[in-house]
Amino acid sequence: MKINIVKSKLKLVGLVMVFALLLSSCGGVQAAPTATPLPTSTSRPTETPDPTKTPTLEPTATLEPAPTEEPVEEMPVQTEGSGLGLSGRQYNIEGGYTFRLPLIDYGFSTRGSTNTISREDEEILISLGTSMAPEVFPLEDALLSFYESAEADFDTLERGAPYEVMIDGGEALAIDVIGIFMGDNVLGRIVVANPHDTLYLFAFSIATTYAEVNHWADEGAETFDNVLSSIQFLPVELLEGACEISTDQTYGYEETNPIKVGISNEVDPLDIFAQMDGVIRQRVYLETLLGPGGETISYERQGSISGEDAILDIYHVTYPGLDQAIILYVDIYHFEYPQAPVGFTCERPFPLE
Asked: Domains in the chain: how many in total?
């Protein structure tokens, strides 16, 4: 049945991504072998499978928009080409990057620093992920190590010569691939970028090809290019360094001293931080926050109240081993660089400005 193939494809693409990230982080990048010419795709007839809905992961916690403020919905971005647009921006804080999803007919799931994006009929798959390597590797070595890890999981896979592309204003390296994946002819592309220091972005997309339709040529390649062009990396200083913990016992716990995550007046309107509305900035803060022992927290919005100079959102926060939920007050209208309240930690400096 199609659903079994779909689940296997999603799982395998995820495993390929994870394996490649582990390979780079463990220092297993090998010298790049000589490229071989990419053969011409030869499609084979096959029955068109019935479309199946993409299974998606449920988030740990959901945010409800405050009744006092309507979330600012980003306008869809129309890109050049056949009219394939992109929807609102997604934030992968753990991975240190943001991106936009295809406008319609695509779903996505997140696992750590990796995002898997798939068209509803599963004919086009995209995977994005980042990893911190122990040292800086040449882009070509990282790219071809990724390719070799993917090659082992395909029926057949061949590649073309590496070529340069741009991601967030910086150079990246790509190769086009052709092969057979779980019995289906596929075309695709692998891209690797090194935005700063030892952080690497790996991006991988494949699409099926049949005698009557080539999903890569018709839509997959352009969709992948659009997603890549939307990627923005968070500033490196917000991905490194120690968690800043408040020493004020009232910080976040009392209405008179809320956690202020609104947009700073000093932020450039074109900056990545200016693109986050208040609801997104709350989520970024809460998803960076950890329990006192590094526990993953769960949070739930309980409503809002009038503070001294702004409407405050009320959150119940829990973590494993906590007997009773902790109440935190958050202000999305004003900004002071956020800290972890007393009794909490964070996995990194809060990526907000």
From this structure: 2
